[in-house]
UniProtKB/TrEMBL annotation, chain A:
Taxonomy of the source species: Eukaryota, Viridiplantae, Streptophyta, Embryophyta, Tracheophyta
Record PANTHER family: ER LUMEN PROTEIN RETAINING RECEPTOR
Organism: Kalanchoe fedtschenkoi
Ranges that cross the membrane: 55-78, 122-141, 153-173, 179-202
Keyword Isomerase: no
Molecular function GO terms recorded: ER retention sequence binding
Record's subcellular location: Endoplasmic reticulum membrane
GO biological process: protein retention in ER lumen; protein transport; vesicle-mediated transport
Similarity comment: family membership: Belongs to the ERD2 family.
Protein name (Swiss-Prot/TrEMBL): ER lumen protein-retaining receptor
Primary location: endoplasmic reticulum
Length: 215, 10
């Protein structure tokens, strides 16, 4: 564990806490893409298949349980909670996210570390996480102004993988034979997808104005 | 195929 990876994990945890805070305090999921949340639930379930078979550390196990349970709880809230579900922007959240699932599944079958069920699922989850934010970014562009908590949620979610890139660079220089091309390339693509959001988020912060993404 | 590395990252 290094400071970059710990900062990344904490930033990721903060993004989830901000989203839970928004849904719990406002009892609303307006501006939140259910499709992105479903993709994240798939990402965590397919990535943490080793939750019960390989024990890395208490921290690792606890964080995996937190990520899986929070992503499933958020999907349940938006789909089933009698108050929250009413504010879901169903007509705006129309990204065909199952196409992303299909494309990542094909890519994982072709490019993986080892051809085993667990490794292919792991590669699939890495690829899917890189594109999972797309439905959310599309929804933000369509829904015009973005409420503060939703903007902060997306900001921390994008920032966490940037810390992971620093972690991979650090590990590359500090450990022999450390190469994780699948994670690195996918992580760079993932962070790049946030580039325009980060730009408009910075502008809104600098001008102290509402976050507006151009349609 | 090469042994896949331990997935110690989240």
């Amino acid at each position: 564990m290094n400071v970059f990876r710990f900062a990344g994990d904490m930033t990721h945890l903060i993004s989830i806490l901000v989203l839970l805070l928004k849904i719990y305090t406002t009892k609303s999921c307006s501006g939140i893409s259910l499709k992105t949340q479903e993709l994240y639930a798939v990402v965590f379930v397919t990535r943490y298949l080793d939750l019960v078979t390989d024990f890395i550390s208490v921290y690792n196990t606890v964080m995996k349980v937190v990520f899986i349970s929070s992503s499933l709880a958020i999907v349940w809230c938006i789909r089933r909670h009698k108050v929250v579900r009413r504010s879901y922007d169903k007509e705006l959240d129309t990204f065909r996210h199952w196409l992303l699932v299909g494309a990542c599944a094909v890519l994982a079958l072709v490019v993986h570390e080892k051809f085993s069920f667990q490794e292919v699922c792991w590669a699939f989850s890495i690829y899917l996480e890189a594109v999972a934010i797309l439905p959310q970014l599309v929804l933000l562009q369509r829904s015009g102004n973005v409420d503060n908590l939703t903007g902060q949620y997306v900001f921390f979610l994008g920032a966490y993988r940037a810390f992971y890139i620093l972690n991979w660079i650090y590990r590359y220089y500090s450990e022999q034979h450390f190469t994780r091309w699948i994670s690195c390339v996918s992580g760079i693509v993932q962070t790049a997808l946030y580039a325009d959001f980060f730009y408009y988020y910075f502008i809104s912060w600098k001008n102290n104005s509402k976050l507006q993404l151009p349609a | 195929s090469s042994a896949a590395y331990i997935k110690d990252e989240l």
